[in-house]
Amino acid sequence: MSDGTIRDFYSAAPFPGYPPRDSYAALRARAERSTFARLLDEAIAPDATVLEVGCGTGQMSLFLAHGDRLVVGADLTRASLLLAADAARRFGIGRARFVEMDLRAPALRPGAFDVVYCSGVLHHTPDPAASFRAIARLARPGGVLVVGLYNAYARIPHRVRRAVARLTGFRWIPLDPVLRDRAGEPARRLAWLRDQYRHPEEHRHTLAEVQRWFRASGVAYLRTYPSTVIAEPPLERGSLFAPAADDWGFENVLQQVGWSWTLGREGGLFVVIGRAGEPHVPATASTGRTVCHASASSPPSPPP
User: Fold this and answer.
1) For 59-98, how does the pLDDT look when each residue is reduced to its tens digit (9 = 90+)?
2) Which of 94, 135, 151, 225 is packed most tightly, with the most Cβ within 10 A?
3) Cα atoms in the 13 Å half-sphere on the side-chain side of 82
4) Could you tell me the strand order of the sheet in which 113-119 lies?
5) Phi, psi at residue 111, to the nearest 5°?
6) Is 32 a residue whose pLDDT tops 80?
7) May I ask the CATH class of domain 3-293?
């Protein structure tokens, strides 16, 4: 699948969309309803340099861009980045920048970021393992990589829904809570429908596969979210980047099978977290283009 195909796909309906009359308070309230988003925000240092790869319309980047953090949101689709930059201006967020970039040839300095966050993106690239290798280089030694992917087990209920939708010509899509919740927001409903049911490129992954990616890039595995440790207590504030209590293959598979019921309702995304080791040899970089600054007052420049 070519870059142009993916760019055109998201240009037609940038994902995720902003609700009508959105505000910064509403964006934060929406994000904080997610336990994972709260844990991520609490785990990142207040002065960290953060990169979101495949930021889309920038909602997570804007949520994380507070305190003394510098957040760089990178995406392939200019239409999405323009929405992100416009929202940053409207919300008065000054510590976010948005950059047009192909993640497979990042135009950013290797080892420049404390946290590299990439969710819902790699599984839409032609070679997710190679794409991971490209973004892993961007984390500093000791920095953290947070990767969200479709899980091979948790995605099964959605694949059934998608098969039914296609058989009925998309006249009936059963048991999709997101479509139901967005019934009164046609633009956001269309964006979800296209992303989940009509995307031209999709892959699904297991934890064991992603752990192999980590080892090949010198990244130490820390944990997943949700946890693959059976009956693990809820994570405490600031502990998302702490190593899991165990990493037993059989237990990992059992928990992933269970995700078909717990994660399958909304698409089956799981998160894998690791810590970067020694710097990697940089790949040849292409030229990235800064779309615009997030505020009228220029924030600190991202690492060259």
Assistant:
1) 999 999 999 999 999 999 999 999 999 999 999 999 999 9
2) 151
3) 7
4) 219-225, 269-276, 139-150, 113-119, 49-53, 70-75, 96-100, 289-293
5) 70, 25
6) yes
7) alpha beta
